[in-house]
Design a protein that fits this description.
47% of the residues lie in helices and 13% in strands. It is built from twelve helices and nine strands. Helix 9 links the parallel strand 7 and strand 8.
C-alpha cells in the first residue's frame, strides 16, 4: 500500500477528510519550500502537492502562473524540486508528497539524466522521484489512454498516478481514468483555470456520485476553495479538499521569516473547519 492509500485509509477510519495544500516549489523564495512543507503538516495537511514550475502551464490561472514564473527565474527546475523533497524527508517520512506539473519537464529530465545503470524499464524521473521520497505524480497533460506503462512503472516504485477530472469529463473519460488511477483523483470543480470563478458546491455535490460510479479511489476537489466555509462545504461530499491559489496569494510578498507561519495559520483554520 502506498503512503497515499495508507493516509486515506487511516482518515476514513477516523471519519475525517484529507486536507491537501498546494504550493509551487521555490515560491516565494527558492530555499523556503522544505520549511513551508513542514508548516503545512503542522497546520494539518494530510498530503502535500508540490508544483513543478513550467513556462507554459495551460491549466494554471494567473496566480499560480506568476508563482511559477518567479520560481523559474530563481532557477528552480525538476532537479531542485526533487532536492526539496529529499530535504523534507530528512524530518518527515510519513506525509505523502505529490508532484503536480506538466509533461515537458519530465520528458526533458529523462533525456538529460538517462543512465546506463538505471533499473531496466525504469525511467530516470521515476527512479529519482522514488529515491527522493515522492509518493504520487499528477501530470496535467498526460492523457490516461497513453499512461498505462507509466502507471505501472510508478506503481512498481510505490508511487501513485493521479488524474484530473472536470465538469466536462465524459463517462468514457471517467472509465479510462478509473482503469489506471491510484492514490486519489482530483476533481476540478470549475471550468477554466485555477483560481477562476466562484465555487458551485451544489454542482460538485451532483457530480461526485457520477465519478464514484466509475472510480474506486478517493476523490479530492480543488480549484475555487479559498476559505474555511467553502472547504467545509466541499468536505461533506468529497474525500479531500485541495487548496492552492489562495495559499499562493497569502504567502506572496511575505517576508522570508513569515512565509511558513502564514501558511500554517491559514491551514489550521481550514483543518478546524474540516474536523468540526
Amino acid at each position: 500500500m502506498s503512503r497515499i492509500a495508507a493516509t486515506f485509509t487511516q482518515l476514513k477510519a477516523q471519519g475525517r477528510k484529507a486536507l491537501i495544500p498546494f504550493v509551487t516549489a521555490g515560491f516565494p523564495y527558492p530555499d523556503v519550500t522544505p520549511e513551508l512543507m513542514h508548516a503545512f503538516v503542522a497546520g494539518g495537511a494530510d498530503v502535500i502537492e508540490l508544483g513543478v514550475p513550467f513556462s507554459d502551464p495551460s491549466a494554471d490561472g494567473p496566480v499560480i502562473q506568476q508563482a511559477g514564473d518567479k520560481a523559474l527565474a530563481a532557477g528552480i527546475g525538476l532537479v531542485q524540486v526533487l532536492a526539496m523533497v529529499r530535504a523534507f524527508r530528512q524530518r518527515n517520512d510519513s506525509t505523502p508528497v505529490v508532484l503536480m506539473g506538466y509533461a515537458n519537464p519530465v520528458e526533458r529530465y529523462n533525456q538529460k539524466h538517462r543512465r546506463a545503470d538505471a533499473t531496466e524499464g525504469t525511467s530516470a524521473f521515476v527512479q529519482d522521484a522514488a529515491a527522493a521520497g515522492v509518493d504520487g505524480v499528477l501530470i496535467v497533460d498526460y492523457p490516461p489512454e497513453e499512461c498505462e506503462d507509466f502507471a505501472a512503472e510508478l506503481k512498481a516504485n510505490q508511487m501513485d498516478l493521479i488524474f484530473l477530472l472536470a465538469p466536462t469529463s465524459t463517462e468514457e473519460r471517467m472509465q479510462q481514468v478509473a482503469r489506471i488511477a491510484s492514490g486519489y483523483v482530483y476533481y476540478v470543480s470549475l471550468k477554466g483555470v485555477t483560481g477562476s470563478g466562484a465555487l458551485d458546491t451544489d454542482a460538485v455535490e451532483a457530480m461526485l456520485p457520477r465519478i464514484r460510479q466509475h472510480v474506486s479511489v478517493p476523490v479530492g476537489v480543488g480549484f475555487g476553495i479559498r476559505d474555511a466555509a467553502t472547504a467545509r462545504a466541499i468536505s461533506r461530499v468529497a474525500d479531500a479538499v485541495v487548496i492552492g491559489s489562495r495559499i499562493i496569494q497569502l504567502i506572496d510578498a511575505q517576508p522570508r521569516d513569515q512565509v511558513a507561519a502564514t501558511a500554517e495559520t491559514f491551514l489550521r483554520e481550514i483543518r478546524t473547519a474540516l474536523d468540526s
